[in-house]
Amino acid sequence: MARASAGWLPSMEGVETGARPHLRGYQLRVLRSLVRGVATCPGETFTVMFPRQSGKNEISAALVAWLLLDHARSGGTVIVCAPTLYPQASISLDRTAAALQRQGLPAGRGVGRRDNVLTVGRARAIFLSASPHAHVAGHTASLALIGDEAQNIDADWFNRQFRPMAASTGAPTVLFGTPWAGDSLLETAAARNRARDGQGGPQRFHHQVSWQDVAASVPGYGDYVRQERDRLGAEHPLFVTQYELRTVQSAGRLLSDAQVARVLADHEPLTAPVRGERYVAGLDFGGDGAGADATVLVIARVAGETAEVVRVEATTGAPYETVIEEIAAVLQRWRPAMVCADGTGLGGPLVDALQRRVTTPIDRVTFTPAMKADLGYGLVAAAETGRLRLHGDDGSPAYRQCVAELRSCRAWRSGGGFRWGDDRGSDDHVVALALCARALGAAGPKRVAAGRTR
User: Fold this and answer.
1) What is the CATH number of the domain that holds 152?
2) CA 416, 58, 69, 43 torsion: positive or negative?
């Protein structure tokens, strides 16, 4: 790749200091290596893995800024793609525009911006969605092809729609992100690059920085990561992938064997509330006909920051009127501090009907993809840290079904999001447990009465 002539164009050092005045040492090392690579290794693929919130997107923006500045006279195109145009690709565009504006370009040589395109002189960067639903055909990448959050970009779609954009130009590809299950677009390329780097050579193709490396430059970052480890658990998929940069060992399942073992406890189930104890509950509504999903109510004792499940009730096929009356009677007897109930679709009016019959506060949870992901992550965190415990085996069908679902519940990445459940509908107990774990956090601390002593 030919470098542009001198003149008003800043040097690499200028981009390093101007595009991000406080770009840290570990970022600069990676940026310098990438600049050398894209300038001297046409057609190659480079990979970058940084822990969350440690500055990999700043490196991507600085790299695009350098390419535009360095080719402002000779011209060329950078294609930048992300799993979505809004907000991800648009955020990348904003970062790059800000990096360019900080260069203090001479009058008449400024940054042009229109829709999803940035221009500097004759060079431009086009920011696109990598969603399979986006229309991206017809673009050409002559300077570089960059994928942000590449672990969430469908590999087949990228290889079919984006890689051909560099076929005639030999433009290099740079993929940024974090790992997941080991088979993503980013991880597959990173595995090849690690093997290649192991053979030696002047150019490095895979760049990875640990959270400990970041903490050495930013001590507060280390404190934050350690707090996240305590909150989520050391083997939570979010912590493992986004901070430890390791793949999820139990990929394909919501809970690992070790996490299920932590959930299974030996405390006694209860048939009635105990005076002085505090409870929370999770409720998942099923159907009301033959072959329908089960309606599951999980009641847990609040023990500090732990929910100790003391009762699991499941009803299948009963009319909704009967189910509402039975659940209302149970809640009136147990009087939990909070109930989190699935209010999705038909569940909405069922929650309303139940709330009219009880004084217990009910949090109606609507299952959007984001909310379902949050519930799944919350359940994994509660299992990993021991904050959710299921009573010992009482021989009941509800207990056996609950344990079976915990062991079989699936999880997977889809369209950049986190999905979990069972297509056959046998995840009702797991959903109720996830709602119960949410109720523990929503209930808040126990209120203590206060007043005058006389």
Assistant:
1) 3.40.50.300
2) negative
Share of the chain above pLDDT 70, in %: 89
Q: Domain range spanning residue 267?
A: 250-443
The confidence band for 416, taking pLDDT boundaries of 50, 70 and 90, is low
Q: Which tokens in the block code for residue 86?
A: 């809004």
> Residue 294: beta bridge partners?
316
Q: What is the spatial distance between Cα 33 and Cα 203, in angstroms, rounded to a whole number?
A: 7
Instruction: Please give the pLDDT value at position 8.
Output: 30
Q: Say whether both 164 and 299 belong to one domain.
A: no
pLDDT in tens, 52-75: 999 999 999 999 999 999 999 999
